[in-house]
Structure formats: structure tokens, C-alpha cells
Amino acid sequence: MEPVYSAGDLLFYSRNGHDSVPSDVIGYRCVCEDVDGMGWVKQVKAGDEPGLFHLISLNPTGANMWNMRLKWAARVRLHWPVEFVRKK
């Protein structure tokens, strides 16, 4: 997620269903879960076939993932950097 988001940052998102990738997430930074249960924060792009998605790393040196099947994806709506997060 670096350099856009750092460890300890809080990302806020909302989703309309437990198993959906709405068309309005395409092209945006999203929190998503693949069919294997792995969570990602990536830019979601349309894949080469319906139901497949390219996950583009926010880190220029990070690995992109091509033609992934996702359970769900939701746009990041708000980001609080770690310095604004107070742990109790």
C-alpha cells in the first residue's frame, strides 16, 4: 500500500453486498477480497473477461495481479493516517 497508505492507517469503506464487485469501483482504490479469502488494497480495473479483474498496486514497485476473481470490492471512502489514530 505504500506510499499511498502506511501500516497503521485506517481505511474506511462501505459495500452494498457481501458478494459483489459493483461497476462503480472500476478505476478506483479499493479494499477487496479474492475468491481464496485474501484481502487487498489495490486499484481495481476490468479484466480480460467478464468476472475477472486486474488489481493494480498502489506501490510503483509492487506487483500487479492480472485476471483475478474477486468475492467483493469496495471503494476507499476515507483515509486516516496513523498519526491521527489514537490507540487505547
What this model shows, in words?
The chain has a single domain, classed as SH3 type barrels (Roll), CATH 2.30.30. Helix content is 0%, strand content 42%. It is built from no helices and six strands. It has strands spanning 10-13, 29-34, 39-46, 53-56, 65-68, 70-80. The radius of gyration is 13 Å and the shape is globular.
Order of helices and strands: EEEEEE
In total, the number of strands is: 6
Average of pLDDT: 93
Could you describe the largest sheet, including whether it forms a barrel?
6 strands, antiparallel
- Supply the number of structural domains: 1
Q: What is the level-2 CATH architecture name? A: Roll
Features:
about 90 residues, mainly beta, SH3 type barrels, 6-stranded antiparallel sheet
Secondary-structure blueprint of this entry?
Layout: E1 10-13, E2 29-34, E3 39-46, E4 53-56, E5 65-68, E6 70-80
Antiparallel strand pairs: 1-6, 2-3, 2-6, 3-4, 4-5
Organism: Phaeobacter inhibens
Protein name: Transcriptional regulator
Gist of the model:
The chain has about 90 residues and is an all-beta fold.
